[in-house]
Amino acid sequence: MLGENSGKNFRKGFTLIELMVAMFIFVLLLGAMVAVSVAGFRSYGKSKAIKTVTEDVGFAINSITKDVRMGKIESADNTGSTPSASLVVTLNRNQKMVCYKISATLTSLDLCDSNSDCSTTSNCKSLVDLSGAGMTFDATSGFRNQKTAPIPNPTVRGWAEINLNIASPSMETDSISVQSTVSSRDYGWQNVTP
User: For the purposes of burial, counting CB atoms within 10 Å of the CB of 63, is it exposed (0-12), middle (13-18) or buried (19 or more)?
Assistant: First the structure.
C-alpha cells in the first residue's frame, strides 16, 4: 500500500525560480510605493512654498497699499505699459520717505529708507524673498502710478497700481499674480499740531 515514492523523503517548499519571481514582484511593488511617496512629498513641498510666497506677497501688498493710502506718492508719474521697479512714498505719520523696490535680480521686494529715489537707499529690509523658493518676479511686475494736485486744495492725490507676478519654473505651475490699485491722499498730518 505504499506509493511508489514511499522510500524517498519529500518536503514541499519554494523552488528557486518561485522565490526569485516573488522577490521581483516585491521589489516592483516597493519601488512603486517609494515613487508615490516621493511624488507626494514633492507635491506637499511645492504647495507649501507657493502658499508661503502667496502669504508673503499678500502681506507686502497690504503694507504698500496702507502706506500709499495714508501717504504721498513721490515717484515720477508712470502710466505707461512698462512698470517701474520702484515706488517712493512719503509717510504722513513721520514724514519719512520710503521706497518699495523689486531687486535687479527679480528675487526680492525690498522696503528701503530713501532720500528722493531708490538708487541711493540704505537700511533695506526684504518684504518678500523668493530666492529660496526657486521663484522670481516676472518682467511684468512693478508699479504704475500717477500723482495729481487738485487746483483748490494743495494736498497731493493720486493712485498707484501694484503688480507682483511670480514666475515659478521649478514648480511647474502657472505664475502667481497679486495685484492692487490704491488711491493716495496726503492728509496733511505734518500741518497738524498735537
Answer: middle
DSSP state of 100: E
Contact between residue 100 and residue 111 where contact means Cβ atoms under 8 Å apart: yes
Show the cell assigned to 187. Answer: 492728509
C-alpha cell at 167: 514666475
Read off the pLDDT of residues 22-57 as tens digits, 9 standing for 90 and up: 999 999 999 999 999 999 998 888 888 888 888 899
Contact yes or no for 178/148 (Cβ under 8 A) = no
Asked if residues 136 and 165 have their Cβ atoms less than 8 Å apart, the reply is: no
Buried (b) or exposed (e) across 5-38, using 16+ Cβ within 10 A?
A: eeeeeeeeeeeeeeeeeeeeeeeeeeeeeeeeee
Q: How many CB atoms lie within 10 A of CB 140?
A: 14
What's 133's DSSP letter? G
Q: What are the residues whose beta carbons fall under 8 Å from the beta carbon of 154, sequence distance 6 or more?
A: none
Asked whether 64 and 100 are in contact (CB, 8 A), the reply is yes
Phi, psi of 101 (to 5 degrees): -145, 145
In this structure, are strands 136-137 and 122-129 parallel, antiparallel, or unpaired?
A: unpaired
- The pTM assigned to this predicted structure is 0.72
Residue 38 has phi, psi (to 5 degrees) of -60, -45
Instruction: Determine the Cα–Cα distance for residues 18 and 59; give it in Å rounded to an integer.
Output: 62
